[in-house]
Amino acid sequence: MSILSENKKARFDYEILDIFEAGLVLSGIEAKSAKKNRIDLTDSFVRINAGDQIVLVNAKIHPFQPENAPKDYKISRTRQLLLKKKEIKTLLGKLKEKKLTAVPLRVYTERNLVKLSIAVAKSKRQHEKREVLRKRAVDREIERTLTNKNFK
Questions:
Q1: Is residue 74 in a domain?
Q2: pTM of the complete model
Q3: In which domain, by residue range, is 112 found?
Q4: 60-104: pLDDT as tens digits
Q5: With the C-alpha atoms ordered 115, 84, 102, 62, is the resulting torsion angle positive or negative?
Q6: Would you say residue 96 lies in a domain?
Q7: Fewer CB atoms < 10 Å away: N or C end of the chain?
Q8: Strand (E) or helix (H) holding 105
Q9: Are 98 and 78 in contact (CB under 8 A)?
Q10: Which residues, other chains included, contact 53 with Cβ-Cβ below 8 Å and sequence gap of 6+?
């Protein structure tokens, strides 16, 4: 399993409750481009359309060879996700709970297939995010002082 792209902002903005694995429906040029790490999950999200169809919205897959890409190729088109019926029902049930959302975490390859990790997540509040930043700063400062003492 090799990770092609990761949505680092999702782990900062959301509290991850559950993770699902979904297949990603791509065209030929998109699959090759994604396998060459030309995919961006920033500002993307998962939506459930009518008929319980789950799609990935606003994920950017840049063309592998821009000169050879079709003229009507859209970088951030909506892409369908593949899940089993049981997983779709579970995901729908969890999303109907209060203030939960589905967020893409990372794109990776598994047995030459492009997969997507979807997280059922709860949004963090602003004070929770500030607390995390404060804790990181303190940890960094402690690490610096420990390494400085080791060199003296």
A1: yes
A2: 0.74
A3: 2-124
A4: 888 877 777 778 788 888 889 999 989 888 888 888 877 788 899
A5: positive
A6: yes
A7: C
A8: strand 100-110
A9: no
A10: 80
| Count of CB atoms situated within 10 Å of the CB of 11 | 17
- Is 8 a domain residue? yes
Q: Among all chains, which residue has been given the structure tokens 């090799």? A: 2
76 touches 63 (CB < 8 A): no
Distance CA 32, CA 35 (A): 5
First-to-last C-alpha distance (Å) of the chain: 42
Question: Cβ–Cβ contacts within 10 Å for residue 91, how many?
Answer: 22
Which residue carries 């402690």 as its tokens?
A: 142
Quick: pLDDT tens for 43-64.
Answer: 888 888 877 889 999 888 888 7
Is the residue at 6 inside a domain?
yes
- State what percent of residues in the chain have pLDDT above 90: 8
Give the contacts of 113 (CB within 8 A, at least 6 positions apart).
23
Compute the Cα dihedral for 54, 57, 62, 65 and give only its sign.
Answer: positive
Which CATH number is 63's domain given? 2.40.280.10
Encoded amino acid at 127, one letter = H
Q: Contact, 147 vs 50, CB < 8 A? A: no
